[in-house]
Amino acid sequence: MAKHKYLVPTTLLSLVGTAAYVFTKKRRRAQQIAIQDGLTEAIAAEFGDQDFSGYWIDFDNHAGLEYECGVSFINQETGLKESYSFLYNPDEQELYRIKPLSDQIN
Questions:
Q1: 71: which of 8, 25, 43, 98 lies 20 to 30 Å off by Cα?
Q2: Cα separation of 49 and 11, whole Å?
């Protein structure tokens, strides 16, 4: 009988913990989507109407103040893939410390 009195609190704690985990995970994913949307707008504003072939974001920044990012374009004139790395501030929707990376043949 002693085992049954600990089963209910353990089950309730497990359910509460699972619900908190799911809520936190969904909230973090929603924040990441908002950051991605802001980043694509900031890239379009900074680099013009070029079609970018891909971008990356380092979401492992635990402070959440700025994110290391990168973007790649295919230059229509030369056929080279141009890549840039930069820092992105989601609060200001600003790109800074833009550094070109090596060009590659596409």
A1: 25
A2: 55
**Paired tokens of 66:** 């700025």
Element (H, E) at 23: helix 2-47
The pair phi, psi for residue 78, each rounded to 5°, is -100, -20
Residue 61 backbone phi and psi in degrees, to 5: -75, 110
CA-CA distance, 78 to 89, in Å (whole number)? 31
**Encoding tokens for residue 25?**
């995970």
Q: Give the C-alpha distances (Å, rounded to integers) separating 80 from 72, 75, 83, 86.
A: 10, 5, 10, 20
Which tens digits make up the pLDDT trace of 30-48?
988 998 999 888 888 888 7
DSSP labels, 32-74: HHHHHHHHHHHHHHHHTTPPEEEEEE-TT-SS-S-EEEEEEEE
- Rounded CA gap, 66 and 94, in Å? 10
